[in-house]
Design a protein that fits this description.
Length: about 525
């Protein structure tokens, strides 16, 4: 991968920044601190964060509580119920992985200055919740703030405690940290988030770094070097209250930033409102399609317990998710808009096909004729058209194709020269936590397997685990290529002293059609040795 130079192309930055300023003003809802102070892209590291840790090379998928719950009801029981619902509903099998509490009084700062779990709300502690989530084959997301306090003031922020707090998050085994920007008056935004990234690296556990400054400080310009995603706008809704027109304003603000997105660096228009009360089926379908078209993080924001069938079908539509999770990572954009109907393109996919979307915002049904030439194709091209919602293919069609949609609805299509619409890798893991216990003082060999299944179309090549990255007591054999692959973990206890041991295993792979690197896969191995073991 090429290094992402944040300081290059200043003219283009300037042009897009002007658009960005408009974006930030348009949707600001919270009382923001002074904006855009001291952004100094040239001070940022030159290498995209994701190139080092291999995380989030496609947009992260998961669930966060804020949109539907706000702060109050969040506790361990609720998060565990949501985790179970995420698995039972089929969302895990569709690629959703990151889950955990948002602002919701889950930790406080002790007298010694260290963060401690709120055991009233989280009786297993935040590490215990993380273990539960990991054991389900999911990834653990936590929340904090870059200022002195979180937004409601209920939890401490990280200011001046960056290194010890990121260490606490690593001890809790967070895989994803959303970092808000409340109560940050006087702080220099790029410096603050860069310091947090440094603290995360120093803590030694790679995490998805999700910046949440609502577009403040234009993070799309500089944050690719220090994080994986950044909110581009204010909140999509107040807790409980889905707001369709606000969601549309946010969509079009986020759309303007398409040039900044790419593998490992994503514009984040906020958690989704799909399935929230007040949303129609058409609006759910449209919002989901737009998020996929914009290569947005797919963080569900609804209550996953007791979803209706249509919401589940929308959130787990693998053909739509395939567009979002495309390895090329292009963010689609509007190429034509008459105020009622917008045509979205600019999203080439890994197999040479194209994603195309028509959004209809008028009051009555409408038709739109899509000409191949406006998509940059030859009029004479004969293309198959796949409807990603009806799952039907028609064609080949030469020159154009006409779609119709009702109010607030979309047509979401994939166009290809061949009648073949492969799904890129969607990787599902049976467990992200291996816990082993050795009780004998005689040398022993313990084995545990992690199974990884690709829901995409291709067989994957074998995963690569660098043996040098493992401690001497652990070896990992990644199985052959294919759809379901296994990692056999072998622990040799010979010579180990009584105690607890831990390893974080990293495995890398490439998507075989495009040759693009896939997000690295991480899992934890815990070993408890009950007594000293002879050599
Ligand atoms: C900010 C964020 C929200 C949520 C709340 C919590 O508004 O943008 O997503 O995390 O804080 O207070």
């Amino acid at each position: 991968m090429k290094a992402h130079r944040v300081s290059s192309g200043l003219k283009t930055w300037a042009a897009i920044l002007m658009g960005g300023a408009a974006v930030a003003v348009l949707v600001a809802a919270r009382p923001f601190p002074a904006r855009s102070q001291g952004v100094r892209p040239s001070d940022s590291p030159r290498t995209a964060h994701a190139e080092v840790d291999g995380l989030a090379l496609t947009p992260p998928m998961g669930w966060y509580p804020w949109n539907i719950f706000g702060e109050e009801p969040q506790n361990e029981k609720l998060i565990k119920e949501i985790v179970d619902a995420l698995v039972a509903s089929g969302m895990k099998e569709a690629g959703y992985a990151y889950v955990g509490p948002d602002e919701g009084v889950c930790f406080s700062r002790g007298a010694d200055g260290k963060l401690m779990s709120n055991l009233d709300r989280y009786p297993s502690g935040l590490r215990g919740l993380g273990d539960f989530i990991h054991a389900k084959g999911l990834k653990y997301a936590l929340y904090t703030d870059a200022g002195t306090k979180t937004c409601s003031g209920a939890m401490p922020g990280t200011k001046d405690r960056e290194f010890e707090d990121m260490r606490a998050f690593a001890d809790w085994r967070a895989d994803y940290i959303k970092i808000d920007w409340c109560n940050s008056f006087g702080q220099v935004i790029a410096d603050t988030y860069s310091l947090l990234a440094k603290a995360q690296r120093a803590a030694g556990r790679p995490v998805v770094h999700s910046l949440c400054s609502w577009g403040d400080g234009y993070p799309w310009v500089w944050a690719g070097a220090i994080g994986h995603l950044w909110r581009t706008t204010a909140d999509i809704c107040a807790p409980w209250k889905a707001d369709w027109s606000r969601a549309m304003r946010i969509t079009f603000a986020n759309e303007k930033l398409h040039a900044f997105a790419g593998p490992g660096r994503w514009n984040d228009p906020d958690m989704m409102i799909v399935g929230m009360p007040g949303m129609s089926e058409a609006q759910n379908r449209s919002l989901f399609s737009l998020w996929c078209m914009m290569a947005s993080p797919l963080m569900a924001g609804n209550d996953l317990r007791g979803m209706d069938r249509s919401t589940v079908e929308i959130l787990t539509n693998l053909e739509a998710i395939a567009v979002d999770q495309d390895p090329l990572g292009a963010q689609g954009r509007v190429i034509w808009n008459d105020g009622n109907v917008s045509l979205w393109a600019g999203k080439p996919l890994f197999d040479g096909s194209l994603a195309v979307l028509v959004l209809y915002q008028g009051r009555h049904s409408a038709e739109k004729k899509i000409y191949w030439e406006e998509l940059g194709l030859a009029a004479s091209d004969e293309l198959y058209v796949r409807n990603l919602w009806t799952h039907e293919t028609s064609g080949p069609h030469a020159g154009s194709f006409t779609v119709s949609a009702g109010p607030d609805d979309v047509a979401f299509l994939r166009l290809a020269k061949k009648n073949d619409f492969p799904i890129p890798p969607i990787v599902v893991v049976d467990s992200c936590l291996i816990s082993l216990r050795a009780t004998s003082s005689r040398p022993d060999t313990l084995k545990a397997t992690v199974t990884v299944t690709n829901k995409g179309s291709s067989d994957l090549p074998p995963w690569r685990v660098d043996p040098k990255s493992l401690p001497p007591w652990l070896s990992v054999a990644a199985g052959v290529g294919g759809k379901a692959q296994s990692f056999v973990n072998t622990v040799s206890t010979a010579g180990l002293k009584k105690g607890r041991y831990h390893a974080l295993v990293r495995a890398d792979n490439v998507e075989p059609v495009s040759g693009k690197p896939m997000s690295a896969l991480y899992y934890d191995v815990d070993l408890e040795v009950a007594r000293n073991v002879r050599r």
